[in-house]
Amino acid sequence: MGRYIIKRIIGLIPLLLAVSFLIFIFIHLIPGDPARLMAGKDATNDEVEALRTYLGLDKPILEQYFIYMKELFQGDLGHSLRSNAPVTQLFGERFLPSLQLSILSIGWAMLIGILLGVISAVFRGRWPDYFGTITAISGISVPNFWLGLVMIQLFAVQFNIFPAGGIETWKGYVLPSFALGAGIMAMITRFTRSSLVQTLQEDFIRTARSRGLGERAIIFGHALKKSMITVLTIAGLQFGFLLGGSIVVETVFSFPGMGRLLIDSIQFRDYPVVQSLLLIFSLEFILVNLIVDILYGFFNPKIRYN
Amino acid sequence: MTGLLEVNNLKTAFISDDKTTQVVRGVSFAVNKGEIVGIVGESGCGKSVTSLSIMRLLKGTSGTIQDGEVRFHDQNLLDLSEQKMRKIRGNSMSMIFQDPMTSLNPVLKIGRQLMQGIMLHLKYPKEKARKYAVSMLESVGIPRAESIMNEYPHQLSGGMNQRVMIAMAMSCNPELLIADEPTTALDVTIQAQILELMKELREKQNTTILMITHDLGVVSEVCDRVIVMYAGRVVEEGKTAEVFENPKHPYTEGLIKSMPKIGQKQSRLYAIPGQVPDPANMPKGCKFAARCPHVMDICTEKEPDLIKDEEGRKHRCWLYQGEYEGGEKVDVKSSTGN
Question: Domain ABC transporter, which positions (chain B) (predicted)?
Answer without folding.
Answer: 5-256
